[in-house]
User: Fold these one by one.
Assistant:
Number 1:
Amino acid sequence: MYQTFVGLEIHIHLNTATKVFCGCKAHFGDEPNTNVCPVCMGYPGVLPVLNQHALELAYTVSLALGCQLSHRTLFDRKNYFYPDMPKNYQITQFHEPVGQNGSIEFALADGTTKKVRIHDVHLEEDAGKMIHAGDMTLVDYNRAGYSLLEVVTEPDLASGEETEAFLQAFQRVVRYLGVSDGNMEEGSMKCDTNVSINKAGAGLGTKVEIKNLNSSRFVKKAIEHEQKRQAAVLEAGNKVSQETRLWNENRDVTETMRTKEGGLDYRYFPEPDLPPFVPDASFLKRIQDAQVELPLARKQRLVREFGLSREQADFVTDARFTADFFEQAVRASAASGGSAMANWLMGDVQKELNHFNLTLEACPLTAGRLASLQSLLDAGRIHTKIAKQLLVSIFEEDKDPETLLQEKGLESIATEQQLAPIVESVFSAHPNVVAAVKAGDARQKGFLVGQVMKATGGRAAPDLVNALLAKFLA
Amino acid sequence: MDTKELETTALLAQIELGKGDLARLGEAVSQMLDNFRKMNELDTEGLEATTHALVTDNRVRPDSPVPSDLADALVERSPELEDRFIVIPNVL
């Protein structure tokens, strides 16, 4: 049996308004080569100047991942010739990255957790974008110089499935921290995957790097393909060659891109144009203040504190906004527990969001409104069916539940005093049905319930209707 | 430095060297390496590496856009353009 080792090099675009070494806008989707200047176009004689916010975000991630923070971080030149990088080198960090030796804990499908060690976190610049078309390549340098954060893990992941779960967890972490939108499809999070297999207990095998993976799903599939391919190579008595392979999403296979030869040598050396950065006390205070409760910790706390099921907790903590919304709503509705609120969010609220094509962030439902809706239910002033109607009205009319309740006159008829006369009038209008039910035809009881509901416009509390019918029929 | 090593270095730097260049540069580079070797003999135990002299404070800038007024001029210097993309031979 073979053992699999997966290590990742994850790149995220940091949420900065400008590029990392120049004042050009870092904005996706602009006309090609508009956000460019002599610095990011690699003209001679220019000087890069570090974007302080990019450094703050880089340190924020490093601290959240439990890294040792560099007290004097340095930049290095990584030399290579390719037209996506007009300077012929990339400014990155090699000798003294922002953070080293951290770890991330994440949940596996069975609910247990696993820790992945982080080798280092370093800040660098992105390359330009190239479109290959026929015999020419089109180059756009708008993206050249974007703040890019690379997080390098140790080879601690053991399967495609585990890696997919890890990437999703990592994505949640960067979104919770607000440092990146972490969207793989749009290229704001990318991941190179190193896979090796070996006989169990024999340590790491020969590393193969896979590029061109733009979703966590493809990462999983590519790892699974590599496990089979490398096993077949070893079974045939051959050696796995150390190389870079590309994922071909049309054929679900990896293909050789380049074999690592002696020729590939980046000749790193300290970047002479950028002085070291030494974080001072106020910088470190800001990094400290930017920390948040991370998704896994929050999930575990919500299970503990509000008795949520794993499924509920997964849903609620998937996005930080939803988790905040949930906690605000629970705390604002005195009587009800977390489970009822989680069910609202997973069920009817999600249904209305889909229906109106809205997000929770930008919809008329606030945590306060959901809490008062639940409080009306808890107080018995409305029943579930009316609550669902009111929820739709909140989405349609953008008003508070209490206001809607008054305007629409939907308050429950929940006292015997109010309901008894209505039941009596239904009984006197349908004597035959009443007689039949009394004679033992229980099926017709539903008809009577329906008539009471009709007479009250659906506002009668169902429990009370049943209780009164039982009493009157006795 | 032997010729093979020099050739590899030239390849990495994308520099084309002729036979005469190799001999001349081989000698010059060897001399440089000898100088570094000499410096390496010094005892630097316990000293922090100096990457930059004369720098005492952090040099950073705020994250606010300062668009360049040179963007159009830079793009127009390219030999070939298509919808503002810079056109080069296919490198894939």
Number 2:
Amino acid sequence: MKIHEYQAKELFRQYAVPVPDGAAAGSVEEAVAIAGRLGYPAVVKAQIHAGGRGKGGGVKLVRSENEAKGAAATILGMTLITHQTGPEGKVVRKLLVEAGQNIAEELYLSLLVDRETASIVIVACREGGMDIEEVAARSPEKIIKVRVNPLAGLQSYHLRELAFGLGLAGNAMKSLAGLVKNLYRLFVDNDCSLVEINPLILTPEEILIALDAKVDLDSNALFRHPALLAYRDLNEEDPLEVEASKFNLNYINLDGNVGNIVNGAGLAMATMDIIKQAGAQPANFMDVGGGATAEMVENGLRLILKDDKVKAVLINIFGGILRCDVFAEGVVNAAKAIGITVPIVVRMEGTNVDEGKRILTASGMNLTSAVDLRDAAAKIAAAVA
Amino acid sequence: MSIFVNKNTRVIVQGITGKEGQFHTRQCLAYGTQVVGGVTPGKGAQNMDGVPVFNTVREAVRETGADAAMIFVPPAFCADAIMEGADAGLSLIVAITEGVPVMDMLKVKNFLATKKGCRLIGPNCPGIITPGECKIGIMPGAIHQPGGPVGVVSRSGTLTYEVVDQLTKLGIGQTTCVGIGGDPVNGTNFIDVLTAFENDPETEGIVMVGEIGGNAEEEAAAFIKKHMTKPVVGFIAGLTAPPGRRMGHAGAIISGGSGTGQAKIEAFKENGIHVCENLGLIGQVSKEAFGL
């Protein structure tokens, strides 16, 4: 689960990770009041779940009340387009107003899970404030990586490797050690999958402050963090995807015109691929779970048909233990109840396949059965051609 | 021959009295798996269809001589169940549970590194089957064909069934099929399974089914070129997946430009793996690649 910068900084404060003074605002008046309290210069930052906000015009330095008012009015409500939002952009509904900082240097710091070594990796770089992947590609030797065994936890040598690797000494080194210790605790306590600070600034007094903050949480662990659930922002999610989550459907809205309903994530991805290979474009990813039932398919179908771009639907269910006759009846009933308006191709595997196909054909609905994947792909491509 | 499980494997089911646990225990028994016991804390001394239930794994192992476990407990308790099984001396633990927190798996994985001789498969996986001998998992047994000569390893459940179904319909049997699971941190990886298939005299060719996210496929491809003599057919799901989105499986995500399907297919091609780009043809491609 993604959270906003201002929420991430709330977590940082709880763990004594230094952040600039500031607060979130939902209106221009609030923003101006916060800036007035902090004093000028201040910074007004758009709060959306995407990076690259500065380049997109979502971050402004303001030196007076007038400028604060102007910046807040411009940014609040704007559709911010960055390299991470996609061309449609995201509407800004919240601002973070912070005190301006004296910056001597910009660094980079992140913590993430390394799946291959089953460890928590701390990544640091003296060159911050820019795209870290670019730095890594240009000069990989500048990226310091330290791996922490989660059973043993963070040790002092990890901190030394980071500080000496970055070439920090004196106060800056001390500041880094305290900050990384607290950040590691935050990461583990809250089941994070990513904590990233870019830039991490060094002030002229050699104190490190998190100028930005990005925190991703492990959705699978939210059951043990009820307080963090309040950070979910439904405005940042696709409305159809929000609805799908209520029915326990794994759904992602895409650009194409062929809706698809599949049981199992791997098969669902492969089904999207095969739709494209047949010359059409998938309108979505949908996994209704390994043990598909007609009821889940009905929920899925209802949802997919709300999407105007869908011109045909492919249902691909590899049941194994599934009884295809029962399943086919379920699909026919769902199609009747919903009142389908587009052709539907059904490919199913399980027992009583022939009886299932007979039921689909005899239904008088616009339901076509396919014998296998290749046949399904060809029929769906023909349906939208 | 086969890898990891055979007709002598003695299995206990952790979470045997839950809905899923009961259903799939019955399916496994019907397939012929030796399910010798179950574990549900507080329900010791009961039985499920004649299978004795114990309070702890240690007790179940002592009383039944079990060497393997199948886990169906809810995600919050899965790490605990895996470590209990490992500590009780089991040599194989198959965790079916979906939704285990990554932080739990980091601990489990590092804990298991201290338990030599204990293999974890999963979590978030369909399990493992040696057709005709032993099924530990939720896959439909009937689509499999005993006797080999093809081994199957995959990160996905139903996608594996699709592959197996195509092989069986072409008359090609399987030695063992292993679902390693769709989570970012799992117990057994592609290389572990490929090594076992390379050493299994009855496996003549391997179908490897990967998907976007991580770089397990790239590492497996390099391993294959260096260490394997048997032909491998590779498939990758998710070529049309958008970056930054989790595609159902917790591990299936393209992040920061890494883990793309294209990169994995390139790695397959560079390392001499027979690439199948169209899932509908994977049975046929395997038949030709393995000369069957």
Number 3:
Amino acid sequence: MECSFALTGKDYVLVAADTTSARSIIKMKIDEDKIKTLSPHLLMAYSGEPGDTVQFAEYIERNIRLYHIRNLYPLRPQSAAAWIRRSLAESLRSRHPYSVNLLVGGFDTADQSPHLYWIDYLGTMATVPYAAHGYGSYFASSLLDRYHNPDGTLEEGLATLRRAIDETSKRLIVAPGKYMVKVVDKDGIREIEL
Amino acid sequence: MSQIWKYVRVTPSGGRVRGVPARSSTTSISLPGTPDHLSSQSTLILRFVMSIMEHNGGSVVAMAGKNCVAIACDLRLGAGAQTIATNFEKIFPVTDRMYLGLAGLASDVVTLREKFRYLTNMFLIKESRPLEPSTFAHLVSSTLYERRFGPYFCEPVLAGLERTPSGSYKPYIVGTDLIGCLNFAKDFIVTGTASDKLFGVAEGLWEPDLEPEDLFETISQTLMNAVDRDAYSGWGAVVHVITPDKVITRTLKGRMD
């Protein structure tokens, strides 16, 4: 089942999402990228109802890109997260709501600070130091609570993330096999091999 | 707010007969005897129903004092029993002398907060005079009633100081239900998942004409003790005491479990 994790460190945000694409009990694909790059310093991991996820993520991706093109500067993480939340909150009261859960992580180049937002399909938004979605959250949140260091180095963050993923793989019956990990910091976004 | 257990009629095939909200049952208990008129057709089941008002948890309380008012909230944001964040404030400033607390569905807390910020800014631009609590209370009421048949799942509490014609200030606290029915009170207003506990403690601790410092102590003790008996609220609190010349804001650390 789908799992995504994210955590902040001293000057970065780590976002991890599993790479399986499933229909019912069948794995269709095991190398799906479920973390979108919204702008040079903004990442969004998405999970939820298949179909809704990609549609919604692309809608967000293109609107944030449009803002960047029109204004020549990207939306800051706080503003982007607020707009994404509102899109989901408005969708919730429409005839066909998107059933998508998100982790939005970004690095604010204006004040050099990492930001992480936990957003669910209801349009609930929480500003958090670490977050998880899916069944993995039941195992990871307590681990992250114990081991997360808001001033940690990237190596320390990766070790904590590995702990969370390992615990999920060990204890969850329907644990995903592979994860994609991305980091966003002052230099932009890059993929990391765990 | 307290309809957690509901009788649900279930057919022998297991299909639902009468509506229960989707995304409900976590536990179900069959009753020993089935009422006659339902006998072979369907069974009554007592089922745990998670209401949308309780999904995220959280509580707010407001109290009136002597020439001052106080409003306080807890800091938990949950998704059912799981705690997501412990920094979720539910009280927002409206003017220098008025704060609005919103308890209920966290999504609507933020949506309503943004809506009221827009409406109060528009009021200031159009009227260029301060917004009084009594005016704002009716704005809250009509905004909520606009969504009478598809409401925002929030119960607001408003605390402020109302300017009298003589130029002095008098305490003004009011609460509404989720469709905007105003509830004026001289003493205190409670809302949220711990509202029943808050009622009890507030009833016991509150007394008329408390000075700002005593009011702070009363509202803090009320919230802390009520919230400690509620699994869906807690993780610290924020208290605002509003006096005519200043607002005192304090963050409290509670039981962190």
